[in-house]
Every structure is written in structure tokens, then in C-alpha cells.
Description:
130 residues; 15% helix; single chain
Amino acid sequence: EGAKLRLSGQGDPAPGGTPGDLFLRIRYQPHARFKVDGENIHCDVALAPWEATLGAKVPVPTLEGEVELNIPAGSSSGRKFRLRGKGLGTAAKRGDLLVRVMIRVPAELTAEERELWERLAATSTFKARA
């Protein structure tokens, strides 16, 4: 972002002269999945409540394709994980991919799912606002 490129001889010619240089400034277009922060990039990955509670291996998109991220048990929504060298830049100095996990809950439940969640709520000693 913001880098300048000079293309020698690719610009408009002066009247009766030779073509000048063309200067370009690089601008990133917004991306649906990634946000750029210097050499680092950020993305969110959705987890089911049981994946966050019990731990899971989840696919994470990178610029080179998906990798598997090990989510430790007890991970709360908003927790960040760093994947070193998966950001922007050259091989010698490459940024990181910062992955934020976001817990998603179902919008609709079956009767059986509701019963299971209610049983969990009744037996759990966890206090979210303690």
C-alpha cells in the first residue's frame, strides 16, 4: 500500500520528444476476508460454541491457501492467534496473519438442541459475568 512504481519510457511523450516515465502508486482494494495493517493482515474465523469450549482444528484462509489452526480448549470469542510469515511482504521480511476467533451461536434451535442447551445451563458452574 502506498508503494510507488516507475515505468521508464511508458509515459506520454513531450511534444516532439520521447516518452517520459509513468509513475504508479499502489492502492489495495478492500477484501471481503482480509484487512491490511502494514505488513500484517487480519481475518476472523467463526467457531461453534463447542469448538471454543472443547478445542478444535479449524481451516483458516491464508494468501497461499488454507491452513489448519489448532484452537485450544477454553478459547473465548475475540482471542487472537498469530500465524508468523503468512502476511504481506517479501520472503526476507514478511508480516503475520492475525486470526481472531468469533463464537457463533445458532439462530434457531430444534427442540432437542434447546433441551440440551437448557440442561447445560442448569448444570454448568460457569459464570460469564463473574
